[in-house]
């Protein structure tokens, strides 16, 4: 069961959730699992202004269905939201009209409904027995994004009529779609002869989409191509014979002006991409690629089906949303929806990257390279704010320039700049990739260090970082957020070490970066004198300066319905000055630097902060689970994991996309938490400390650690590390 996700009761209210949860992808494109046919009451072209409110507090639009086809790297310019991912024309359309009656999941009668996603190979299937006035027809849909032919989506539809009759198969590509209520298509050119649609976006990128419909049947009575508004239709009339199954295969091909092999002519490009492999051949190669991915990344859980399903669901989405390009990363919704506009956050380095570093290092490198490729944007951010160096964006997209339109986060959530360097160090250390560290990484380090030299403020002997928001977004304007200051100190220390390494190994690279002795002295001074509100005597870390002065509030009295976020029950003004947290902040620090703090400190802090944390962000529970594991409070560690397992599964939270940071967190909670794997920043040697909770019998997985592969196994009697 744990490989196959199943939904067998159609409820139109949760349809949008399944579209997100069963999303597919192949490293080139991603698609939501919307139905092939039109759905009544679910228009796809609504236009509205999506405001830059915090998406967790915002009201959902398109409540029944939202088509979504995204090619990371294809982006538009939204007047308010900035650079955003574009929802492309929907080419997967197949309407069925039987004796004049259209299949519509919201109004038709059907029995035996079932839809499934196979996590093993990303195959999406739907089956139903459609009961029409005139007939019963068994319909089975299969769809996959080919891992073997990256620019191709394949659909197969099998129809088995229970009577003779006439059916019209209306295959369509609809360009009348919006992204977050906005139209990014500057030009739409529909080519009837070639069954293709060509789009020019408002950023002048080009996309070509071609569909091939293949119906092997001698009873085709008619075929007609038409264009109605922005929809290209291909209608085939077929005579069905009782019990005689017919199979329809539809292939959709994409070509874009950002493909590396782009030849300057999008039509030609599209033609070049069309292949002749059979369905079976392509599917076989596709399955093989998925098998290789799982072979490196699977986590096998025994004794707990919920955990097994959730971790495989998480790994599936991490694998399918990881891109083959290094000019994009993985957005906060894993390209399974438009919330967060296709933007990249600190989620990438802190929540997602460890999974890739330890199981798919070549994808980890792409994510790091994305940050190198957007260094120019980070430099222009720093300049915009009046600083030297580079400031990574709170919300980053294609150029790396700040895309967050809410100033509180854009201006103050500066820890992301240090988190990016933390991710870089983590990757380089595990892969021993010194070449990359010095050739590219050092420039990122020096430029961000230049930013910190100016963003810190020296008062007396001590350095402060004033006016910041830490990971906890319910305290917006604080001074000396310990998480931020600690991260900054760590990355500046690493910068000094990398400079020393470069002096010995590649002095030419260093001299090109023009770092002066004065600058190096200043970095060292910050490292030695930055304020850290870590009280070793009292074993306590204050989240930020004056945290204790914030108002104590009665959280339970305000939070009347805990199924909704706390943030909806309090004004932002009051929230920002009260002792209530959105998410792990000090607790995140305790996990990321767990070797630096003893158990007493960890226990004091988590006992204090957890009761005042609302966990309004999906990034919160999982770090609590990790800290509880670390201090041997297995029961609590499991409870916190349990709250994360269902976010995109049982709680049906995937309507607007996948909470991909939580997915990366679930992987960490098992691998780093329950199996207690020390990461390569904590130790050069691979070590595990068995922390398995009673609810799980055993865990096993493969790990890539310091350039070698290992098999890890833990159960309640033994812990094994086997070099491979
Ligand atoms: C969280 C951030 C996170 C963002 C994107 C917000 O709700 O508070 O920490 O980076 O979502 O996932």
TrEMBL record:
<dbReference type="InterPro" id="IPR005194">
    <property type="entry name" value="Glyco_hydro_65_C"/>
</dbReference>
<keyword id="KW-0808">Transferase</keyword>
<keyword id="KW-0378">Hydrolase</keyword>
<dbReference type="Pfam" id="PF03633">
    <property type="entry name" value="Glyco_hydro_65C"/>
</dbReference>
<dbReference type="Pfam" id="PF03632">
    <property type="entry name" value="Glyco_hydro_65m"/>
</dbReference>
<dbReference type="GO" id="GO:0005975">
    <property type="term" value="P:carbohydrate metabolic process"/>
</dbReference>
<feature type="domain" description="Glycoside hydrolase family 65 N-terminal">
    <location>
        <begin position="8"/>
        <end position="257"/>
    </location>
</feature>
<protein>
    <submittedName>
        <fullName>Glycosyl hydrolase</fullName>
    </submittedName>
</protein>
<dbReference type="GO" id="GO:0004553">
    <property type="term" value="F:hydrolase activity, hydrolyzing O-glycosyl compounds"/>
</dbReference>
<dbReference type="InterPro" id="IPR005195">
    <property type="entry name" value="Glyco_hydro_65_M"/>
</dbReference>
<feature type="domain" description="Glycoside hydrolase family 65 central catalytic">
    <location>
        <begin position="312"/>
        <end position="668"/>
    </location>
</feature>
<dbReference type="InterPro" id="IPR017045">
    <property type="entry name" value="Malt_Pase/Glycosyl_Hdrlase"/>
</dbReference>
<dbReference type="InterPro" id="IPR005196">
    <property type="entry name" value="Glyco_hydro_65_N"/>
</dbReference>
<dbReference type="InterPro" id="IPR037018">
    <property type="entry name" value="GH65_N"/>
</dbReference>
<dbReference type="InterPro" id="IPR011013">
    <property type="entry name" value="Gal_mutarotase_sf_dom"/>
</dbReference>
<comment type="similarity">
    <text>Belongs to the glycosyl hydrolase 65 family.</text>
</comment>
<keyword id="KW-0328">Glycosyltransferase</keyword>
<dbReference type="Pfam" id="PF03636">
    <property type="entry name" value="Glyco_hydro_65N"/>
</dbReference>
<feature type="domain" description="Glycoside hydrolase family 65 C-terminal">
    <location>
        <begin position="683"/>
        <end position="722"/>
    </location>
</feature>
<feature type="active site" description="Proton donor">
    <location>
        <position position="473"/>
    </location>
</feature>
<feature type="binding site">
    <location>
        <begin position="346"/>
        <end position="347"/>
    </location>
    <ligand>
        <name>substrate</name>
    </ligand>
</feature>
<dbReference type="InterPro" id="IPR012341">
    <property type="entry name" value="6hp_glycosidase-like_sf"/>
</dbReference>
<dbReference type="GO" id="GO:0016757">
    <property type="term" value="F:glycosyltransferase activity"/>
</dbReference>
<dbReference type="GO" id="GO:0030246">
    <property type="term" value="F:carbohydrate binding"/>
</dbReference>
<feature type="binding site">
    <location>
        <begin position="582"/>
        <end position="583"/>
    </location>
    <ligand>
        <name>substrate</name>
    </ligand>
</feature>
<dbReference type="InterPro" id="IPR008928">
    <property type="entry name" value="6-hairpin_glycosidase_sf"/>
</dbReference>
């Amino acid at each position: 069961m744990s490989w196959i996700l199943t939904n067998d009761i159609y409820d139109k209210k949760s349809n949008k959730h399944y579209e997100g949860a069963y999303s597919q992808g192949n490293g080139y494109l991603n698609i939501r699992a919307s139905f092939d046919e039109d759905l009544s009451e679910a228009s796809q072209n609504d236009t509205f202004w999506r405001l830059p409110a915090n998406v967790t507090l915002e009201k959902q639009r398109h409540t029944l269905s939202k088509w979504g086809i995204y090619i990371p790297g294809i982006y538009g310019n939204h007047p308010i939201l900035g650079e955003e991912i574009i929802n492309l024309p929907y080419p997967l359309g197949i309407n069925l009209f039987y004796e004049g009656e259209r299949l519509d999941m919201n109004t038709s009668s059907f029995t035996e409904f079932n839809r499934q996603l196979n996590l093993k190979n990303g195959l999406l299937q739907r089956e139903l027995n459609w009961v029409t006035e005139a007939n019963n027809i068994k319909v089975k849909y299969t769809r996959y994004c080919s891992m073997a032919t990256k620019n191709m989506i394949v659909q197969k539809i099998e129809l088995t009529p229970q009577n003779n009759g006439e059916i019209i198969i209306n295959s369509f590509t609809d360009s009348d779609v919006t992204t977050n209520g906005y139209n990014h298509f500057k030009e739409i050119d529909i080519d009837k002869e070639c069954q293709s649609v060509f789009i020019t976006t408002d950023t002048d990128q080009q996309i070509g989409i071609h569909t091939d419909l293949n119906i092997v049947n001698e009873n085709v009575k008619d075929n007609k191509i038409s264009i109605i508004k922005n929809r290209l239709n291909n209608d085939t009339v077929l005579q069905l014979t009782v019990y005689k199954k017919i199979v329809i295969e539809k292939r959709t091909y994409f070509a874009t002006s950002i493909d590396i092999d782009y030849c300057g002519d999008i039509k030609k490009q599209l033609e070049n991409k069309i292949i002749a492999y059979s369905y079976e051949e392509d599917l076989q190669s596709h399955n093989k690629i998925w098998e290789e991915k799982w072979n490196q990344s699977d986590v096998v859980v025994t004794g707990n089906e919920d955990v097994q399903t959730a971790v495989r669901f998480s790994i599936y989405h991490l694998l399918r949303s990881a891109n083959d390009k290094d000019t994009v990363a993985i957005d906060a919704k894993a390209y399974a929806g438009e919330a967060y506009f296709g933007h990249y956050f600190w989620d990438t380095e802190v929540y997602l990257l460890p999974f890739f570093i330890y199981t798919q290092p070549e994808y980890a490198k792409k994510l790091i390279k994305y940050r190198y490729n957007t260094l120019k944007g980070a430099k222009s951010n720093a300049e915009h704010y009046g600083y030297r160096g580079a400031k990574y964006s709170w919300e980053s997209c294609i150029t790396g320039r700040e895309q967050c339109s809410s100033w509180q986060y854009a201006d103050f959530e500066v820890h992301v700049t240090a988190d990016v360097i933390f991710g870089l160090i983590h990757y380089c250390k595990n892969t021993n990739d010194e070449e990359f560290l010095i050739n590219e990484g050092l420039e990122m380090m020096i430029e961000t260090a230049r930013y910190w030299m100016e963003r810190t403020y020296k008062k007396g002997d001590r350095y402060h970082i004033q006016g910041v928001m830490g990971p906890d977004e319910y305290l917006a304007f604080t001074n000396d957020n310990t998480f931020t200051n600690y991260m900054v100190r760590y990355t500046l220390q690493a910068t000094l070490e990398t400079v020393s390494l470069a002096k010995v190994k590649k002095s030419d690279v260093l001299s090109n970066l023009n770092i002066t002795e004065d600058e190096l002295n200043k970095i060292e001074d910050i490292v030695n004198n930055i304020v850290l509100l870590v009280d070793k005597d009292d074993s306590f870390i204050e989240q930020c300066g004056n945290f204790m002065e914030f108002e104590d509030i009665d959280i339970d009295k305000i939070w009347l319905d805990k199924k909704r976020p706390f943030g909806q029950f309090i004004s932002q003004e009051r929230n920002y000055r009260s002792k209530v947290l959105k998410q792990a902040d000090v607790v995140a620090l305790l996990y990321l630097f767990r070797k630096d703090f003893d158990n007493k400190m960890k226990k004091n802090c988590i006992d204090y902060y957890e009761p005042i944390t609302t966990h309004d962000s999906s990034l919160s529970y999982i770090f609590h689970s990790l800290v509880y594991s670390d201090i041997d409070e297995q029961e609590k560690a499991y409870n916190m994991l349990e709250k994360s397992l269902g976010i995109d599964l049982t709680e049906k939270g995937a309507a607007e996309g996948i909470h991909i940071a939580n997915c990366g967190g679930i992987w960490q909670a098992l691998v780093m938490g329950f199996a207690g794997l020390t990461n390569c920043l904590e130790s050069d040697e691979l070590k595990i400390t068995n922390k398995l909770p009673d609810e799980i019998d055993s865990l096993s997985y493969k790990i890539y650690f310091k350039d070698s592969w290992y098999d890890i196994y833990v159960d309640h009697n033994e812990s094994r590390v086997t070099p491979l």
